[in-house]
Amino acid sequence: MNKQQFVSSVPRAAYVHIPFCRRRCFYCDFPISVVGDKQRGETSATISRYVEVLCREIAQKPVQSQPLQTIFFGGGTPSLLSTEQLQRIIATLEERFGISPDVEMSMEIDPGTFDIEHIKGYKGAGVNRFSFGVQAFQEELLRLCGRAHTVSDIYAAADLIHFVKVPEFSIDLISGLPNQTLEMWQESLEKAIFLAPTHISIYDLTIEPGTAFGRYYQPGDKPLPTDETTVQMYRMAQKILTGADFLHYEISNYALPGHQCRHNRVYWENRAYYGFGMGAASYVEGKRFTRPRKTKEYYAWVEAGAVIDCEVTPPSEVLLDTLMLGLRLAEGVSLDKIKQEFGSDKEEEILKVLKPYINQGWVVVEAGKLRLTDPEGFLFSNVVLASLFEKL
């Protein structure tokens, strides 16, 4: 095996975590800080302090000669930032790393958290892709999830996004919600398409320990949809969205031709990336590191110099990561890359493990690629990956 150049290369992508939300959604286990319905960057000393510390963390990195090609502001709710706060973060990234002229700069935004001046300001600062947290188009489901917005907020916010003519516009939806029916799911898909996004992400609800949903529900119990229903939801999404000219390019993601998320492909292709902010993860020189998930600990860590101390990812884990992430993509994983990076015997071992799933029609080997079929292979990806993890 060679030196695994793909994990030691200089990162050209950066994820920036903005942890603030008006309230915590009942399914959320992300590292966030609740600021209430009336606070935002212009008025909140808490948000201002965080931006200051975040920029200090970024500024502690060595100056880099290769500019960033993708930047993703996630959260939390980054659209609670003022335009000036966003500009300051971007300027700090520019100073340390440089930003490519054709950068994809994404920002997660929630309905009801911005007005026309904010959206103009974000675009003016360099944001050219908005990821819009819709989740559902039914008032009862939004309330049940603890979301802060209404259906009317969704349409009003979408109008603002289209008004400023942002090149890339993605919508997030969640399937498998409590009391969600197939009819509701079809309605959400059709209304999402009506809003004319270039990209749609579909996430199946996961009940996480420590969340409100984790206290209320047990997986498989009512009012959660049955496994059979959630499978039908997945197949329905695939049929409706591909029928509307969206390409199903990743297990949970659909894009019109030429509009895939470049930043997220960095993760799926197991390439290096920076992470900044509370709870953010990074993958640099074969090392994975996650920052403290609580505000006080994160501030103390930055004050101490943001020293990263972590183990190099062993070759076996790099192989499994490459398979686990790469098989999420419709084009799958290059067998030539597997052979070059890990040896021909590993390629043969992988194909041997996957032979039953190839026979079953869940996995296909063609044109030098190993990929899951759509939708059946994607639906049973956990079964396929479990076998790989067990044998390899």
Give your account of this protein's structure.
Residues 1-8 have low confidence and may be disordered. With 392 residues, this protein is of the alpha/beta class. It is globular and about 60 Å long. α2 runs parallel beside α3 (83-97) and α14 runs antiparallel to α16 (381-391). Strands 9-10-8-7-6-5-4-1-11 form a nine-stranded mixed β-sheet, with helices on both faces. It has a three-stranded antiparallel β-sheet with strand order 14-16-15. It has a two-stranded parallel ribbon with strand order 2-3. α4 links the parallel β5 (99-109) and β6. The chain has helices at residues 5-8, 45-59, 83-97, 116-125, 139-145, 151-163, 182-194, 212-216, 227-243, 262-268, 295-303, 315-326, 335-342, 344-360, 376-379, 381-391; strands spanning 13-18, 20-21, 33-34, 68-75, 99-109, 129-135, 168-175, 199-204, 247-250, 253-255, 274-276, 281-284, 287-290, 333-334, 363-366, 369-372. It has two domains: 5-268, tm_1862 like domain (pyruvate-formate lyase- activating enzyme), CATH 3.80.30; 315-391, Orthogonal Bundle (Arc Repressor Mutant, subunit A).
What are the key terms here?
single chain, pyruvate-formate lyase- activating enzyme, Arc Repressor Mutant, subunit A, 2 domains, 16 strands, 43% helix
What topology emerges from the helices and strands here?
Blueprint: H1 5-8, E1 13-18, E2 20-21, E3 33-34, H2 45-59, E4 68-75, H3 83-97, E5 99-109, H4 116-125, E6 129-135, H5 139-145, H6 151-163, E7 168-175, H7 182-194, E8 199-204, H8 212-216, H9 227-243, E9 247-250, E10 253-255, H10 262-268, E11 274-276, E12 281-284, E13 287-290, H11 295-303, H12 315-326, E14 333-334, H13 335-342, H14 344-360, E15 363-366, E16 369-372, H15 376-379, H16 381-391
Parallel strand pairs: 1-4, 1-11, 2-3, 4-5, 5-6, 6-7, 7-8
Antiparallel strand pairs: 8-10, 9-10, 12-13, 14-16, 15-16
Helix pairs in contact: 2-3, 2-11, 3-4, 7-9, 13-14, 14-16
